Amino acid sequence: AQVVGSGAQGGGMRPKPVVVLLAVAVGNAWLATQARVDWCAVGATATLGARGGAAGAWLRHELTVSPPAPADRRRPRLRRAASPLQQPGASAPAQEGSRVLVVEACQPLGTELVRQLLGRGCQVFAAHRPGREEAVAPLQRSGELRLLPLDALDEASVVAAAGRLRDALGDGAPLTHIVHCAAGIAHDGWELKAAEGSALQEALGSAAVAPVLV
């Protein structure tokens, strides 16, 4: 807000507030950012198809995503609170033979990640909410895809899914990557005053609590 002078009234200058409203198109920017975050987890650079294009495509416009550029070391940086993971190959990109767990694979972004990973020769475990497997079931023609019912906010469901995952891995080889897709727009509207408490709890639970439980 700016404060500018108006005509004299009552013997003095009376401040008149001028409110400047700035409309920000957050939709595409938010989606692009979320996609970059999820793709960074598997070290991928790829183009997500537009809706009506290739099989499994869902975007309105074609979107190219890639890992973020290296940080500018001239900028102030926070001190590390912990040492980086030193396990060999921990930061390697997903490639042929990688074993990847995709949580919330029933979401559009998760389904596209599953499709791209299968195309790279990865073995994919697609964790979907119970009753929502129809989104990823068409991709099951590849023998490298396993469907895994999982409600990431239900501890009992997480424990049961972990047991099924251990049985599926079988030979003891660990997962190489875990990707949690919490992308999505919770219900309708952007104004906080119109949001319901239960909807906010569900959105925050999916984005913050569920990854910890899994």
From TrEMBL:
<feature type="region of interest" description="Disordered">
    <location>
        <begin position="65"/>
        <end position="94"/>
    </location>
</feature>
<protein>
    <recommendedName>
        <fullName>Ketoreductase (KR) domain-containing protein</fullName>
    </recommendedName>
</protein>
<dbReference type="InterPro" id="IPR036291">
    <property type="entry name" value="NAD(P)-bd_dom_sf"/>
</dbReference>
